[in-house]
Amino acid sequence: MKIRFAKSGLPATGTVIVGVLADRTLTAAAKSLDDAGNGALSRALEAAKFDGKAEQTLTVLAPAGTTLSRLVVVGLGDAAKADVAAWERIGGAAYAAAVATQDDEVLFALDGIDGAAVTTAEAAARIGFGALLRSYRFDKYRSEATEKKDDKPKVTTFTVASDIGKDAKEAFAPLDAVAEGVFLTRNLQSEPANILGPEEFAKECQKLEKLGVKVTVLGEKEMKKLGMHALLGVGQGSVRESQTVIMEWTGGTKGEAPVAFVGKGVCFDTGGICLKPAGGMEDMKWDMGGAGVVTGLMHALASRKAKANVVGLIGLVENMPSGNAQRPGDVVVSMSGQTIEVINTDAEGRLVLADVLTYAQREHKPKAIIDLATLTGAIIVALGGEHAGMFTNSDDLADKLFKKGQATGEKVWRMPLGDAYDKLIKSDIADMKNVGDGRNGGSITAAQFLKRYIENDTPWAHLDIAGTTWTNKDLPVVPKGATAFGVRLLNDLVAEHYEG
What we know:
Elements: E1 2-7, E2 15-21, E3 25-26, H1 28-36, H2 40-47, E4 57-61, E5 70-77, H3 84-98, E6 105-109, H4 120-134, H5 144-149, E7 157-162, H6 165-190, H7 198-206, E8 214-218, H8 220-226, H9 229-235, E9 243-250, E10 259-269, H10 289-303, E11 309-319, E12 331-333, E13 339-341, H11 349-364, E14 368-373, H12 378-383, E15 388-392, H13 395-408, E16 412-414, H14 419-422, E17 432-433, H15 442-451, E18 460-464, E19 470-471, E20 481-482, H16 487-497
Helix pairs in contact: 3-4, 4-6, 6-10, 9-11, 10-16, 11-15, 13-16
Protein name: Probable cytosol aminopeptidase
Keywords: Aminopeptidase, Cytoplasm, Hydrolase, Manganese, Metal-binding, Protease
Active site: 276, 350
């Protein structure tokens, strides 16, 4: 779908979207349509008990006094309190309501609002961004007959009309680049594992070279020389070769230390010898969610020419049971030299991250490092799908991530770390074991494991995105399915805190 920006004005035909503020206060465009219909719109709002609450929608067929086919009314809430994320959600809600009309083009008539917390140009850009994010569909494997039966959305153009069309277009440009990164991540997270294995994923990353990203792929031969046996142990049961991919974007000051993002890329997780139950195992195609986020983030940063030095690193493996699979009780030596007793082969993501974290620090010496992983079911028990779990050794980084999470709607919640939890991964025969004692505090002991691989007090944060990577229901700017949670959060983090 294409997002356009135009000068104010209402078309004579088709579908138009207008806003209504809290307490059923009509905007200028809504009032003009209400006047044309001798108050018909006001009566419709009253009958539907539509009060203008943010994201509330109402569709009016063949609105009186006009030649329009449909009028979609969307609640704007209190504009004085609406931040950019609120306008994105309004855009997503407007698109969701308008797409049901099956029109090719829809227009959102946006009026300037006195006392609004953001400018009209920014609001227009964010409406377009929200609508674009909500329009995503993964229909690659749907046949033409199925698409016709399911009434594939026909909206090809979503126009936001206002008095500041040019300014809105300029404000939207970097958001459009971010949307491309979000869509790349959602595509990767949605692909079935028979299509997207480690090597295929690595090839997708190499496509970023056309944007100016330097991409390096390490195969098993290179990783063995580096001593990355923790990662290699996870993938040894699969016929597919494990990979590590390094993506470098140097848009900042030459020689300045980069910020590093590390992603878990388990392209399919059976649990290995500690086999998962069959029910729901199909979801494990998106156990590479963290790697997908890092890849989409690098696309977004390169597309908008971010003035920062950033390196994205992902460890790509497939965790399968076979005659060559890793066993419970095995001991592996990580790249850092620390030894790990593998108690549970289904606690594999931390083994992958351990070696990639070490590589990131020793080869790139980052000023800060953030890893993302669909790491534990325990974080879903703790936080559900509303927040990602955040574990960090830096109060400053925690504050930055929390604030950006609130601003983007990709929210994180800080969880504890401490010596008492660290003792739970003490091994009798190795430096550590890969799980704690029992199920209690599972997401915390996983984070403690990762913390052992952070060197020289490098500011570090681990985001456990197991509960936020996939949604089983439509959200304001995220349709059911892969969410790409983290791309917008981390893009904004880089924009505010790491760009020169």
